[in-house]
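glucose-6-phosphate 1-epimerase
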Amino acid sequence: MSGEKEKTSAPSSSPYVEFCKGVNGHDKVLLRESRGSSAEVYLYGAHVTSWKNDHGEELLFLSSKAVFKPPKAIRGGIPICFPQFGGLGTLDQHGFARNRLWTIDDDPPPFPTNTLSKAFVDLILKPSEEDSKNWPHCFEYRLRIALGPGGDLMLTSRIRNTNTEGKPFSFTFAYHTYFSVSDTSEVRVEGLETLDYLDNLQNKERFTEQGDALTFESEVDKIYLSTPTKIAIIDHEKKRTFVVRKDGLPDAVVWNPWDKKAKAMADFGDDEYKHMLCVEAAAIEKPITLKPGEEWKGRLELSAVPSSYCSGQLDPQRVLLGS
Ligand SMILES: O=P(O)(O)OC[C@H]1O[C@H](O)[C@H](O)[C@@H](O)[C@@H]1O
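Structure:
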């Protein structure tokens, strides 16, 4: 019958997955694990904006000045940088995936995973007309965001070249994670010592990192190359260690804007640089090339474990070398 309102099949919520509205009415998905951990992701940018442990503590940094208004990307959480990291190409900074409205993928191809997580959502992005003008490639980008039984946050990207005329394409990529920290002066990063890096503050010149954990006293913007699958971010004050586990992502960007750049960013509080650190699992030095039909998978697994040197509960080296 004409005029009948078309029924949209709103996805059905469950105790583990709730579809709701967030800031400025943007569609948001809430993931909840049975022991109390939770995460939030906006369909805009497929952007994780919150990840809380089972005590309800927020583990990701989200700027108090974040603008939830397209085309601006949300400042904080885990922006998706695809199909271009930074200014390494002809597209806008970090590509367009973080500035697009993704949709729920209600019929994803089978997902080879060993997690029993019920708290997950599958999102999908395909190129718009506009995107195809600037980046003339056919792709399907499927992203699964899941909370593991222990509250770990897992992001799995599957990007397939769906081009039918035989054209391959290449891209660079990052999960641009903003970790919430007590104070940058209390933070050290283990796992990147002695590695080579490109310094974005020195014309991307290549250097070799010194031999012990990274500490922070000024602006840092470094692309570490061929990094281990595990990196530890130790917050001494909070007695908490973030463990970044990554697969298919050989590089890692470490970024803190510090005071001058913080003041220059309208969507970032002047003092917020003290309470965040970006450690971004990435594929930058060697762009990923896909032939038609080929699929790339990039996995990020974040966990937050109690760590206190005095109690000897956690030795970062054990975490890095352990399972
Ligand atoms: O402001 P954005 O476009 O989100 O970029 C924020 C930052 O992202 C990455 O960390 C880059 O290495 C930095 O050079 C850039 O400033």
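Confidence is low (pLDDT under 50) at residues 1-7, 310-314.
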